[in-house]
Structures are given as structure tokens and as C-alpha cells.
Write a structure and sequence with these properties.
Shape: elongated
Order of helices and strands: EEH
Oligomer: single chain
Helix content: under 10%
């Protein structure tokens, strides 16, 4: 889980996520987005509105120029 950004339609996330990458494995990575409704209980995802998710291969990210992924 990264940071929650309050009242922003175009949030910019700054928390870095470190992930172990194993070249010989096909590792999938999923990003899920939620609209946080209760900032007192951010980690309880059942209290928030699910917006969407995106799944991709870590290999595609690591092998991309400057490690920038584009869907």
C-alpha cells in the first residue's frame, strides 16, 4: 500500500515501491486504485470505493527504456 492522497482528481504518488525481480521468472504485478472515504481507517479496503486495477509483467517494466512502463 502506498500513500493516500486526499481530495485530488490528479494525484501524484511519490512513494517508491521496491520489488525483487527474478529474470528467469514471469512475475506479474497488479496495481489497484481505491477512492478512500475514511482516512481514519485507510488500510480497510472494504470501506473504500474500488476504482480499477492494472496487471502487467515486471519484465516489461524492467526491460523498458528508463524503466518507464506504458500500457
Amino acid at each position: 500500500m502506498t500513500e493516500a492522497i486526499q481530495d485530488n482528481n490528479s494525484p501524484e504518488f511519490v512513494t517508491q515501491i521496491e520489488v525483487d525481480f527474478f529474470f528467469e521468472e514471469n512475475q506479474k504485478f497488479i496495481i489497484r486504485l481505491y477512492d478512500v472515504d475514511d482516512f481514519k481507517d485507510v488500510k480497510n479496503l472494504e470501506k473504500h470505493d474500488f476504482i480499477g486495477d492494472h496487471e502487467f509483467s515486471l519484465h516489461k517494466l524492467v526491460s523498458s527504456r528508463n524503466q518507464v512502463y506504458s500500457a
